[in-house]
């Protein structure tokens, strides 16, 4: 049986980036029943498919923490390159910078790409499977524009927008639609687990009804669209392409 942390206890979010922790805490909101704390952990650089990498990182992090953990991985996948750089975007970016990423597609007509974000959650019990939650944002690779504060943002333009991620105002949450979708999914899953399974310590809670389970499953598999207009959490006002 999975050991789910009791309400008020901590779940470790593996990151050394304070801004990223703040982002996730704000997105999770007050309804998240646990205290999310950041911890920087040195993890091996795994190779393979995104799901495999996320799973291995999460298992290793849980082993080191000896408790529940959340690990995030972000990929940037170019259609013309068969999904590359994918999970290796960190090294591509270090060597090529946003300008180099754009030039990688100089010989290709297809500039489409997608940002893939995966959250991996482990209860800390090695017998429990790692849960993966994924969100995806379609877009195109363009000549870099905007501030250089956050990785490959300047060269990724989300579908339906005329701005790159870097140019979008107040992009704290809205520019990272993939993160929003997966974080919401992660919140629903952990909250559901805490209700449906015995808490530790404490008495067992009644299981969810079938209707409630179906409702939550639908939330887990639904990725909300990137908002095109209006306010969204931090006041983003997106611009649609004119056609």
UniProtKB/TrEMBL annotation:
Annotated cofactor note: Binds 1 divalent metal cation per subunit; can use either Mg(2+) or Mn(2+).
EC number per UniProt: 3.6.1.66
UniProt keyword Cytoplasm present: yes
Record region (Disordered): 199-243
Residues that coordinate or bind Mg(2+): 45, 73
Any GO molecular function: nucleotide binding
A Gene Ontology term for the protein's cellular component: cytoplasm
Top EC group: hydrolase
Residues engaged in binding ITP: 15-20, 57, 73-74, 150-153
Entry superkingdom: Eukaryota
Subcellular localization(s) per the UniProt record: Cytoplasm
Swiss-Prot/TrEMBL keywords: Cytoplasm, Hydrolase, Magnesium, Manganese, Metal-binding, Nucleotide metabolism, Nucleotide-binding
Cofactor(s) needed for function: Mg(2+); Mn(2+)
Composition bias type Basic residues, residue spans: 230-243
InterPro entries tied to this protein: ITPase, ITPase-like_fam, RdgB/HAM1
Catalytic activity reported: XTP + H2O = XMP + diphosphate + H(+); ITP + H2O = IMP + diphosphate + H(+); N(6)-hydroxy-dATP + H2O = N(6)-hydroxy-dAMP + diphosphate + H(+); dITP + H2O = dIMP + diphosphate + H(+)
Subunit organization: Homodimer.
Protein family per UniProt: Belongs to the HAM1 NTPase family.
Function: Pyrophosphatase that hydrolyzes the non-canonical purine nucleotides inosine triphosphate (ITP), deoxyinosine triphosphate (dITP) as well as 2'-deoxy-N-6-hydroxylaminopurine triphosphate (dHAPTP) and xanthosine 5'-triphosphate (XTP) to their respective monophosphate derivatives. The enzyme does not distinguish between the deoxy- and ribose forms. Probably excludes non-canonical purines from RNA and DNA precursor pools, thus preventing their incorporation into RNA and DNA and avoiding chromosomal lesions.
Official protein name in the record: Inosine triphosphate pyrophosphatase
Organism: Crotalus adamanteus
């Amino acid at each position: 049986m999975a050991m789910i942390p009791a309400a008020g206890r901590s779940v470790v979010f593996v990151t050394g980036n304070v801004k990223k922790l703040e982002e996730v805490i704000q997105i999770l909101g007050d309804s998240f029943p646990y205290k999310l704390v950041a911890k920087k952990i040195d993890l091996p650089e795994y190779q393979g498919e995104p799901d495999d990498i996320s799973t291995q990182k999460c298992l290793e992090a849980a082993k080191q923490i000896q408790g529940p953990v959340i690990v995030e991985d972000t990929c940037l996948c170019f259609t013309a390159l068969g999904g590359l750089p994918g999970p290796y975007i960190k090294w591509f970016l270090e060597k090529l910078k946003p300008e180099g990423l754009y030039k990688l597609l100089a010989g290709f007509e297809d500039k489409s790409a997608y940002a893939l974000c995966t959250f991996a959650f482990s209860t800390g019990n090695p017998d429990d499977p790692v849960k993966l939650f994924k969100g995806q944002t379609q877009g195109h690779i363009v000549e870099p524009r905007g501030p250089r504060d956050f990785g490959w943002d300047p060269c990724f333009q989300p579908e339906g927008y005329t701005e790159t991620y870097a140019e979008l105002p107040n992009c704290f949450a809205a520019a990272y639609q993939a993160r929003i979708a997966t974080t919401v999914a992660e919140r629903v899953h952990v909250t559901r687990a805490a209700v449906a399974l015995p808490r530790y310590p404490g008495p067992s809670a009644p299981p969810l009804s079938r209707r409630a389970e179906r409702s939550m499953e639908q939330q887990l598999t639904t990725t909300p669209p990137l908002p095109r207009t209006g306010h969204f959490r931090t006041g983003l006002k997106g611009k649609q392409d004119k056609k």
